[in-house]
Amino acid sequence: FCKQLERLLSAPQHRNFRVINAGxxxxxxxxxxLYFTQELVSYKPDAVLQVFFANDVYDDLRYSALAQFDTxxxxxxxxxxxxxxxxxxxxxxxxxxxxxxAFRRAPTEGSSWLASQSYLxxxxxxxxxxxxxxxxxxxxxxNDEFFILEDNQELVEPQQKGWExxxxxxxxxxxxxxxxxxxxxxxxxxxxxxxxxxxxYDHFFFRGRPTEADQxxxxxxxxxxxxxxxxxxxxxxxAGDGLYFPHDGHWTAKGHRVVAETLAPALSLxxxxxxxxxxxxxxxxxxxxxxxxxx
Length: 295
Prior knowledge:
Structural class: alpha/beta
Distance between the termini: 12 Å
Number of strands: 7
Number of helices: 11
Order of helices and strands: HEHEHEEHHHHEHHEHHE
Strand content: 5-15%
């Protein structure tokens, strides 16, 4: 959606806005804060759009276990390596761990070189992996990474702990944007089953209907930080079908268009008020730059 957003912002104001896609796969608010303060801040953006995704809270929990903090408690680095968190779900922890590892590895383990080069080949491999999982489990396990979307009393405590961490890291990024003179915006990319309102056991392995707990928490965080929250869920729900690739979970061209058209008015209201930068000042090319870190 970044290039479409770039055009939508630039045309009505007759100014050359540049939208940089700074999103990195598997990054969560903790890593996005570090990425911004250690690298992206050098671009001197006018605005930063943070795009939350429903597995970000899970990732903040596991990355925090690998993080290094300075004497004031601020994160300074995250060590490499995996630290997967498993929720017992009324089962022995060993059994839950085996299930999570099995379906987490299934879509990628053993896939051919062709599957990494071709979307069609990857889709075929995905179907093969799902068939293997169906034969291995009487009922496929829930994906722990999206545990914040479950209405499960067993998960209330880790949900609260996870949201506390995510709230802190979002606040740190917002404060870093303030220091850099960049306006901060928050939004969330909903999964397909949140939009369509029915079960979607797709690429993200979420069985059943997800809650909207992520939207509630993010709106509360945005209100607390006094920052704009752009509601993509409502816009996508009114846009009809064809927004997500089937059995993939990512936006189609139509989905990206709806997102860009929803973000543009919210951003332009504030960005349009910024004075134009001269080529010799903060932006050598004379462009305004907007970064959306995160997916």
